What does this fold into?
Amino acid sequence: MIGFLRFVFVFLVVWFLIRLIFRYVIPWFMLRFMKKQQDKFNDYFKNQETRKKGDVEIKVTKTQDKDKSQDGFGEYVDFEEIEPDQDKDKDEQKDK
It folds into this structure.
């Protein structure tokens, strides 16, 4: 009987905590996330308004120089095409 009461008590506590989390904590995180996104959106458009029409802005990004051998593809091999008739002649000569 004590095991059953303990189970019911733990179940009620966990259920109550889950209700609190979904009622207060998750909406708080959602509002915080939406506020951050709204601030980013407003900052982006505020920067758009400060630039005059026709102004040019150059953004330099760092690029890493990689050797072609580090690409993981190996080196290029040039293959020759063989005519199908020549291939049959070579096979016939091997058979004889």
Summary: The chain has a mean pLDDT of 80. The two ends are 94 Å apart (CA to CA).
